[in-house]
Amino acid sequence: MTTVLKIDSSLYSKAGQSSQLAAQFIDALAERQPGLRVIERDLGHEPVPHLDAARFQAFLTKPEERSAEQQAVAACSDALIDELRAADVIVLGVPMYNFGVSSQLKAWFDHVARAGVTFRYTAQGPAGLLTGKKAYVFATRGGAYAGTPGDTQTAYLRQFLGFLGITEVEFVYAEGLAMGPQSRDTSLAQARNALRRLAPPIPLAA
Ligand SMILES: Cc1cc2nc3c(=O)[nH]c(=O)nc-3n(C[C@H](O)[C@H](O)[C@H](O)COP(=O)(O)O)c2cc1C
Questions:
Q1: 140 C-alpha to center of ligand 1: Å?
Q2: Does ligand 1 have an atom closer than 6 angstroms to the CB of 143?
Q3: Is the model's pTM score more than 0.90?
């Protein structure tokens, strides 16, 4: 059975345009693969705490030496990582806010990038430990940046996911969403067409 992890990172939770495109993609996947298992992580509805020194220290402390508070911090991060590990496919709804990803998504990144757990350092440099997965990103923007230096997100997301070992990443953009109703409607319609084309026609996993 294929397991999909859906990460929503819009302020508007499931009502966000990025979350809705991600949901439509999963619907298209489910049509092709009945019984698809979907794990949902809605960071707008249930934000991950901002990483601070105490939290990071909890990650660095050996499990057997963690205080009760540090155990709770590590357990929160472990639960997020378990969801990632369980997933064959990761579907990310990624709005652009103030020229970057949402702080909710960044906080999640800060909790799933764990040395010795999701990546490790080798003599050849860092190696991601979450291999064999595929990610799909649904990027929504008020303006239009894809293919220009103003697109701060695409390279960043490839870099971050690749660091964890997730190197197969597809992007669907819905841009110009704040450039008038015609621009918005056309862009969303194009994104919906693109996501239907992307949904794999054959099962991803037995
Ligand atoms: C706080 C905030 C900041 C935003 N900053 C940008 C921006 O820097 N560039 C841009 O193109 N659109 C920006 N927008 C517009 C959003 O990218 C657009 O509304 C998009 O649809 C949001 O996705 P969502 O509906 O999934 O949250 C911003 C919207 C908000 C609410």
A1: 7
A2: yes
A3: yes
